[in-house]
Amino acid sequence: MRFGVNHTPSVGWFHSWLDFSASDTARDMEAIASLGADHVRIFPLWPVVQPNRTLIRKQALADVATVVDIAGSFGLDVNVDALQGHLSSFDFVPSWLDSWHRRNMFTDPDVVASTAAYVEALAAAVADRPNLLGITIGNEVNQFAHAPHPSPHDITAEQGHAWAAAMVAAARRGLSSGGSGAVGLEARHASAPPVAGSAGSRPEPLVTVAQYDAAWYDDAQPFGPEHAADHGDATVTHSWVFNGSATLHGALGPGSVRHGEYLLQLAAAWNRDPARPNWLQEVGAPTNVVDPADAASFTEQTIRHVLDAQNVLGVTWWCSHDVSRSLADFPELEYDLGLFTNDGRLKPAGEAFAALAREHGSRAGAGTAATPAPTTTGLVLDDVLADGTTRYGLRADCAPGGRFAAAWLALAETDPDGRGPQVVLRSRLGDAGLLAARGITRCVDVPADLDGTALSVAHPATMP
Description:
CATH superfamily of the largest domain: Glycosidases
Shape: globular
InterPro entries: GH (IPR017853)
Largest sheet: 8 strands, parallel
Strand order of the largest sheet: 7-6-3-2-1-10-9-8
Organism: Curtobacterium pusillum
Distance between the termini: 30 Å
Number of helices: 15
Protein name: Cellulase family glycosylhydrolase
Helix content: 25-40%
CATH class of the largest domain: Alpha Beta
């Protein structure tokens, strides 16, 4: 499994893109590499790169490419996020989308075309870098589509599909046609392997669409599970236990330390291709619900549970460095999420991450334990009604405290191997080939009474 870190610059936070420093970046990347990580995720600010709808700054693109090169010099692959978008409670939306120029970012034809041009240009600027892991369309852009955003850009699910498809196509155009010439610094560390499932020493970069967990838990959010599973090359999840998990279960309770594992299993149920990778692209130990004294244990338990999930591309921890206390107006929890302090001291959570990366990560080398066979039990998620129509309330049922979430956790906690069950959509129960490919030999229903620990076998899987 791949181990990575979301890079929060230690000097100037993401505002550092305004006065980019290669030396500051190199210091951060060297620290990240010292953890045994094999990749980083970086976040150029959208308004900095595209301050006008028809202006994409060449220097800003060059700065992004330089960061990719610097990371490569320390053996790190890089995933580049395009639309920031939203970071740590702050929105970074270009002025041509706001106030007097307010237009719907998902449906206005001129905006969609200009945004796609930016995504394509960004992808092209780094396309020839051998350590490019991929392009993510944006950081939790679905938060702009519905409440609790104070000024959402309203869309339908169908419009969300059209927007996501347009952005993925733009990224792929950039990757196929781009490249700025010389690669520059030595990029790929000899011990950092290609992305799982790729061929050759230079894997095809991934294109992904990232959403925050309302996509899985909020029935009113127009971006849903299908948008995550149907677009791009991997299904991305972001796991944060301040969503109610830690309140319900305690910071170190099973429902908290298994939340990342649960989201990965839930995501896998929506994949049409059973071999599609699943990526835990954000997970962290938020101090508003996880005591700093528990952060190392939370980190270790979270990652150990993720190790046994199916087709996991990797885990990318949020984040590399704490936010400097000299910067104002962040929510309190945002200041202390780093694996390093702002001045570069490794924290206990960072030590826990590093130990696991060195034991299980892609840079661990020979002797790393093989990925276990998938758990053979599938818990059935009622995604459709008797007439075949989509069931409203489906996502709420999956949210922390929901009936399905409780049933999954009950099964996970009683499994003799300590592994959570796979998730199977009821609409796909008849697909014997899909079940066989996922290694599922029995499917069980959510019981009417969740007080017990036993779930009855409802649908023996028909194996070919």
